[in-house]
UniProtKB/TrEMBL annotation, chains A, B:
Taxonomic lineage from the root: Bacteria, Pseudomonadati, Bacteroidota, Flavobacteriia, Flavobacteriales
EC annotation from Swiss-Prot or TrEMBL: 6.3.4.18
PANTHER family, A to Z: PHOSPHORIBOSYLAMINOIMIDAZOLE CARBOXYLASE, PURINE BIOSYNTHESIS PROTEIN 6/7, PUR6/7
Catalytic activity: 5-amino-1-(5-phospho-beta-D-ribosyl)imidazole + hydrogencarbonate + ATP = 5-carboxyamino-1-(5-phospho-D-ribosyl)imidazole + ADP + phosphate + 2 H(+)
GO cellular component, one term: cytosol
Domain of life: Bacteria
Domain ATP-grasp: 112-298
Family: Belongs to the PurK/PurT family.
Record protein name field: N5-carboxyaminoimidazole ribonucleotide synthase
Pathway membership, UniProt: Purine metabolism; IMP biosynthesis via de novo pathway; 5-amino-1-(5-phospho-D-ribosyl)imidazole-4-carboxylate from 5-amino-1-(5-phospho-D-ribosyl)imidazole (N5-CAIR route): step 1/2
Keywords from the UniProt entry: ATP-binding, Ligase, Nucleotide-binding, Purine biosynthesis
């Protein structure tokens, strides 16, 4: 087998954001050589890799040139030039997740059709090649308010998604390929991180529960485990396992799901990489999601996905009234709370609702951890230095 | 208060070995800027810091120049030019642990006298300024075989320590200032990691038990918690707490102790830094020792020292018959065991008994973890590529 540890083997990572930064903790732990490329020369992953270079991940030539330098290529963000990944595969490079997997996921219309053709339960939808066609369908009564609009490409963190309740909402949408999705009545949003190795070994993490910030449409708290019945949790893990095997992805797959009032579980969307809903695992799990991603793509045995203890993750986002050099006001107050660990992503500048870090809270009692999460939220403010 | 997170603040670390490397996981987690100096341009800490430079830690001018570039200076190894640290302090630099603390610990004769003058229980000893004086004392019957010889300076990992049973052993010692120490009859070797912050907040970790490799005189297994009575554990933690407050150190202090057959606890020696006996904390504790060291020297609140679960650490040392480019043979076998995490220090070349990494094993049942530790030991071999 290949020797990855303190060897000449080179892992390439496309994208140098916080997910890449956290992945590098584990490449350092295993002393695996890493090459990182990101468009931003100040990207969080510029440190702790063996080699960093700047380049757009959508630039075919840049990705090709970068891919040729490494032995295995992975990514921490979906916005990557898929054609380049395909051509690197054709040259015999290992790319995990594969270009084919990414292609099925990158475009939301393709992703939704994939669920449909694989009998994976998901909210009803229709695809429109442009805004005009959508408007026509609405005026003809084929689509009725309210519905959820999603841009086929380019969405993240709640961007590219809108709830459309009226003609007025409709008129403010950009012109792009999109899907109109049934507005699902759900009682809980949950997620399961699945790991699948090159050899096809699959492991699922416990179901987590996501609580959203009402205004920013971003996840505010992630609870592990989700406060749902065991039978429902088992059903969700089985569904995530099914989704994983259908995609035949290699690496991590974060499967976000809705639970309806009648305990139906519907797949919302997936991400083929470490995910915000898996950050709890850094302090909470036997194997954190980043180490698990490495194990999967290097075809090492997958680690245990059991929890050491219960946990709640709080996203640290920039205060809505602040832009500029960041200050984590009150961080010493939350660090005085037992079992509370802040993770700072290393972005110099804060902006309203920008993801700047997260805080993990571990406690044997989940409801206690949830209460602590609110205290954490109230005691720390992500503001700018000058104001 | 000072803002350390994603700010202009610069932490200087003298020494770039595995302890420095693991400390950098946590400076990255908190996005604290780091400057590292080590004599070896290929030191494990050359990555993941913001700035790396080569230089001998014993070189006064190098340490002075390095210290002036940073806001706060710490070290991951005791072999540092203390005069430079003193002069940096005189210039107003914060050095944690202080030059005064390091001076009391760096020289074992000074360290032992410190215990005596502070009524800290320790094995009886006498100091000799050179080998000739020790030989005279032996020939005059003031010191009798067997006894433990320790060089006052320069010892680590069992080097600079010898059991002297005969004139022949005596004749093979180097000429240096040394101590002759009573050979203590002990049933267990234990250690406690103590953290003490700039403000004087003190926390102790649970007592760990150290099992030594019979030949290499190196720690083979570290068990947390130690398999001793609670009352004895409390006594050891209280003693470690006392030692910490007497030294008035800032940062971590690893206190190694002997337990005698009559349950006396004697201090063997201390190290003012993260320590091998605290590696279990990376996966086992609410706050790992490296994060705790940062909290202490930055005067942040100390984190909880409680364990998430029981753990056993196994040191990975180079096989005695191998020298050359390292291969971790069988590492995939131990990674298939749940709760087993290898930590690879990033040394390219293995040598007999060289510390190359460690493996943490976590399990709710300590005796199960201890059994797994032997399996780990038997399944992985640190060998060289060529042989």
């Amino acid at each position: 087998m290949t020797h990855y540890f303190s060897s000449d083997f080179k892992l390439g990572i496309l994208g140098g954001g916080q997910l890449g930064k956290m992945l590098l903790y584990d490449t350092r732990k295993f002393d695996i050589q890493t090459y990182v490329m990101d468009a931003n020369p100040e990207a969080p992953s510029r440190l702790a890799c063996n080699h960093f270079e700047t380049g757009s991940l959508m630039d075919y030539d840049k990705v090709m040139a970068f891919g040729k330098k490494v032995d295995l290529l992975t990514f921490e963000i979906e916005s990557v030039n898929v054609k380049a990944l395909e051509d690197l595969e054709a040259l015999g490079k290992n790319v995990y997740p594969s270009a084919a997997t990414l292609q099925k996921i990158q475009n939301k219309a393709v992703q939704k059709r994939f669920y449909k053709s694989n009998q994976i339960p998901t909210a009803d939808f229709e695809v429109f090649s442009n805004l005009k066609n959508l408007k026509t369908a609405v005026s003809e009564g084929k689509i009725s308010f309210p519905f959820v609009w999603k841009s086929s490409t380019g969405g993240y963190d709640g961007k590219g998604v809108s709830l459309i309740k009226s003609e007025r909402d409709l008129s403010q949408l950009p012109d792009a390929e999109c899907i109109a999705e049934e507005l699902v009545d759900f009682k809980t949003e949950i997620a399961v991180i699945v790991a699948r190795s090159v050899s096809g070994e699959i492991k699922t993490y416990p179901v987590v529960e996501m609580e959203f910030h009402p205004e920013a449409n971003q996840v505010e708290y992630v609870l592990c485990p989700a406060r749902i019945e065991n039978s429902l949790a088992e059903k969700a893990r089985a569904l995530a396992h099914l989704v994983s095997s259908k995609f035949e992805h290699v690496g991590l797959l974060a499967v976000e799901m809705f639970v309806t009032p009648s305990d139906e579980v519907l797949v919302n969307e997936v991400a083929p990489r470490p995910h915000n809903s898996g950050h709890f695992s850094i302090e909470g799990s036997f194997t954190n999601q980043f180490e698990q991603h490495l194990r999967a793509i290097l075809d090492l045995p997958l680690g245990s996905t059991e929890s050491k203890t219960n946990s709640v993750m709080v996203n640290l986002v920039g205060d809505e009234n602040h832009t500029g050099d960041v200050v984590y006001k009150g961080i010493e107050n939350i660090m005085a709370m037992p079992g509370v660990t802040p993770h700072i992503y290393g972005k110099r500048e804060t902006r309203p609702f920008r993801k700047m870090g997260h805080v993990n809270i571990i406690h044997s009692d989940l409801s206690e951890a949830r209460t602590m999460a609110e205290t954490v939220k109230s005691k720390i403010k992500v503001i700018s230095k000058t104001s």
